[in-house]
Write a structure and sequence with these properties.
438 residues; 18 helices; globular; disordered C terminus; F-box domain-containing protein
Length: 438
């Protein structure tokens, strides 16, 4: 067999970039010039969920510590790990170029065993890496408030879910601002995406404090998931939304009770997530009214998404037949409002194309022909519906849900503006990546 011809390294890199993931180990054995490119892809995303995963990774990095620099995405499930595990601390210290990091614990287990986040000091070293751009913390106990604020000030994307703050540190942190009405309000110049899941109202009160409103000022995407935002914190939420109104283009929020949103002129995508459990308790009249109230503050939407979250096996599932006939007028108002927004978007798009036409005619004397018009695709205002399940898909319930929405909103359905799905309308890549540790 003749030896493999020597290829330029840039061609080798292009070949490896297109190779299927399950072929990368074979690629690394092909030739010396293939090794580094293959290893960079093999170790780019690392997910450690069980003890054998940790042991294997520590063995690899002990023999070849340079491979740690290739790790860009790291997901760690830390429940049950030994405290102050020095061997693991050394292995993770080689990962000096991390860009995305997810750390997942188990607050039930942590509370019962008195396991504190502070038992793993190497976590704080990882979280302070200057290369980090995206951080997710999920289901963790005894989290220092200073860690949260450091992330908000230095990272571009932050996802926080079910965190329990260290109480003594929280009180000390808050007391540092006392004694003056003119307290310093920090501002983040990097953070553009913040996602918060807080069913226990543990984290949101901390984040929505007026002392931290500066962290919201440059956000372009905000996702808030909670069972219900209390009256005590609703005004703080409105202030936070107002702070980022000029830059916020995407908002996803649990919206069980209607309240007035501040004007959000830059918003392109709005997703309202509603619990079926609460929808059956609160007057069902609030469902179309909730959407109408939200639309008043968002005149430039491209997409409105309505997601109903139900529990599996028919438990706490919402019976659409409970909606009284008396609410038909509100559904009709919503239908007309959505069609009007679609037509308004069409008009704005035509005006924009005409403006470009005038510019081209005046500057170049060239008409906007079919080739140029292709750069301005027909606008599409979308109304997306989703029925979310915590366990499995039930075809009958989903069909009933879709049929009911089409009947209640016939105008937008006939205009072809509606889409339906039985899962998450949008999922952040970090959310999907972190699940690999489960």
């Amino acid at each position: 067999m003749s030896p493999l011809p020597q290829l330029p390294q840039d061609i080798v890199n292009s070949i490896i970039a297109l190779a299927p993931s399950d072929s990368l180990h074979a690629c690394a054995l092909t030739a010396i010039s293939f090794v580094q490119s293959s290893q960079r892809r093999i170790f780019r995303s690392v997910s450690l969920g069980k003890m054998p995963d940790y042991d294997r990774m520590m063995s690899i990095l002990d023999m070849s510590p340079h491979l740690g620099e290739y790790v860009k995405d790291l997901a760690l499930y830390i429940a049950g790990l030994p405290a102050n595990w020095e061997a693991l601390a050394f292995a993770l210290s080689t990962m000096t170029e991390l860009e995305r990091l997810t750390i997942i614990g188990n607050t039930v287990e942590s509370a019962s065993s008195c396991l504190s986040l502070r038992w793993h000091p190497w976590l704080f070293d990882l979280l302070s890496l200057p290369s980090l751009r995206c951080v997710g913390l999920d289901d963790l106990y005894d989290v220092p408030p200073s860690l949260i604020t450091d992330l908000l000030e230095t990272v571009e994307e932050v996802s926080l879910a079910q965190l329990f703050l260290a109480r003594d540190a929280e009180e000390e942190y808050e007391n540092g601002y006392s004694g003056s009405d003119n307290f310093f309000i920090p501002t983040s110049h990097f953070l553009w995406h913040l996602a918060v899941h807080d069913d226990c109202e543990e984290l949101l009160p901390f984040l929505l404090s007026p002392r931290r409103i500066g962290y919201f000022r440059n956000l372009s995407r905000l996702s808030l998931r909670t069972i219900c935002i209390s009256e005590d914190h609703r005004r703080d939420l409105e202030s936070a939304l107002a702070a980022c109104a000029a830059s916020l283009t995407r908002l996803e929020i649990e919206y069980t009770n209607p309240f007035v949103l501040p004007a959000l002129p830059a918003l392109c995508h709005l997703e309202l997530r509603i619990h079926a459990d609460i929808l059956t308790i609160v007057d069902a009249y609030s469902f179309p009214e909730t959407v109408l109230i939200a639309l008043e503050a968002t005149p430039n939407l491209n997409t409105i998404a309505l997601a109903i979250r139900e529990r599996p096996m028919g438990q706490h599932s919402f019976d659409w037949g409970l909606l009284p006939i008396s609410t038909a007028g509100k559904w009709q108002d919503l239908d007309h409002r959505l069609v009007k927004m679609h037509r308004g978007q069409l008009s704005r798009k035509v005006e924009a194309v005409q403006g470009v036409q005038d510019t081209i005619d005046s500057e170049d004397g060239l008409p906007l022909g079919k080739g140029n018009a292709a750069h301005f695709p027909s606008p599409r205002f979308e109304v997306r519906f989703s029925l979310l399940y915590l366990d499995h898909y039930e075809e009958d319930r989903y069909s009933k849900f879709a049929s009911d929405m089409k009947d209640r909103l016939p105008a937008i359905n006939e205009a072809g503006l509606t889409t339906f799905c039985s899962g998450h309308i949008f999922q952040h890549p970090m959310d999907k990546f972190s699940r690999n540790t489960r």
